[in-house]
Sequence to fold (203 residues):
Amino acid sequence: MSFNVPDLKYPYEALEPYIDAETMRIHHDKHHGAYVANLNKALDGTEFAAWTPEDLARDWIKLPEALKAAARNNGGGHYNHSLFWELIGPDSGGKPSGALAAAIDGDLGGFDAFKTELTKAGLGRFGSGWAWLVLGADKKLAIVSTPNQDNPLAENRVPLLGVDVWEHAYYLKYQNRRADYLEAFYNVIDWKAVAERFAKAKS
Ligand code: MN3
Fold:
């Protein structure tokens, strides 16, 4: 098998009460697990099995026609979820500090404006997808959203933080209340991890 689901660095219940243990278990083991299983099924035995998940999320369009959909959807799903688990965690939330906070102030008009825009992007994504804080090619922060398992990398933007707004990310606890899930999400953002991605992307 070329691709594997990374272990969570915290227990399933660690994000309670904001994200419940059962959602984490199903989301990580079953949903992420299915993206990885389908990706392996499609790419094992081809040269593309050696690509990184990041390569696939950025350059799926370069694959042969027969493999494109699998690379885009399952490769994207693998990359997006691997990133998601890294950027949330227990004892998190609050606000960023340092250079990231300064960039949010300068580029997005401050933390409250960032929050408003990210929530708006998450609520405005019809159907399934993600809302993102990204670093653009102009090295400025921006808020974008992508459908399904697409990723900002394919649009030459570096994803710094992503929030999964597929129903599977919140339905067990929040049912149709995506706004409540998004509000809760701010309590699990690991800003230290986001700041590290920002520093790396800027350099
Ligand atoms: Mn998901």
